[in-house]
Predict the 3D structure of the following.
Amino acid sequence: MRNTTLGFIVTLALALVAAPVPSHAQQPGKVYRIGYLGINAPTPPDQTPQQCPIKGNPFWQAFLEGLREYGYLPGQNLLIESRYTGGQPERAPALAAELVSRTPDLIVASSATANARAAKQATGTIPIVMLNVGNPVGEGLIASLAHPGGNVTGLTDTISEEIGGKQLQLLKGAAPKVSRVAVLRYAGPGGSPSLFWGELEAAARGLGLTLQPYEVRTPEELEGAFAAMTTARVGGLFVADAAFLYVHGQRIVDFAAQRRLPAVYSWRDRVQTGGLMAYGADWLALVRRGGFYVDKIFKGTQPADLPVERPTKFYLAINLKTAKALGLTIPQSLLVRADEVIQ
């Protein structure tokens, strides 16, 4: 009886040793460390990301969801140390250097070309994962999407020159009487105000629209830009996809409402807080995908061997309350295509 019991125990032990390890299993006892450089701190503002694994803005929550899919849990086998520029790209170099000095296993540079550039300048050895960084090839962050080279990889929200034309088409569909459209662009540090400008103008001509660019470098210049739009009697507003404009997006939404300008954005959350409409890449899906890159690098894959991915999911959001306030009737043909309609 004793020999039978002993044999059973040995057999069970061997079976446990031979059992396949889950694909997302982590090194036992290993605590991974991420340095995170973003533009907006998660909410509530009095808590750090480490203290707030579930609460926070949707962007941050999606990032944590992506990590959890691969078994990385803040406060257990993962530590995240974060820095935020607050939409001021000039802060990025010092903050990136600060994170590098903490010697993390990996740096996440989120939502701004300036953040990714600062991280790359601060280290050539620590792997860097971009999240929603625009035009990484043109900005010299990587060699190509398929073969990034160096220590930078991740996800870009730059789709193609066609996205701006699509946004103009949707704006024209919602406000067919509009003929002059203001284009609000960021021209400060890290900005690319002329990116796809030629393609945007060509799309505008095809829709019978005339574009008028307005460039801002600081938050204080926003009010003056909108005053100039009123003087020029523009009929609509196209807000370029830039981290600075996203950070100050609520002020832009408010100014557009005050000036009675139908506006199109790239960010769904600006429609949720009063903007007329938004069309663009699904940011949350992109950010969630960041967990894949983090996992691959933690398990030994070099960034140079991980192709940079572009968006595959898109969304259209429309705010009917704002449309009513502007005296607009949104065609049913647009509403049936919308992923989100705010009544």
About this structure: Confidence is low (pLDDT under 50) at residues 1-23, 46-55. The CA atoms of residues 320 and 343 lie 5 Å apart. The two ends are 74 Å apart (CA to CA).
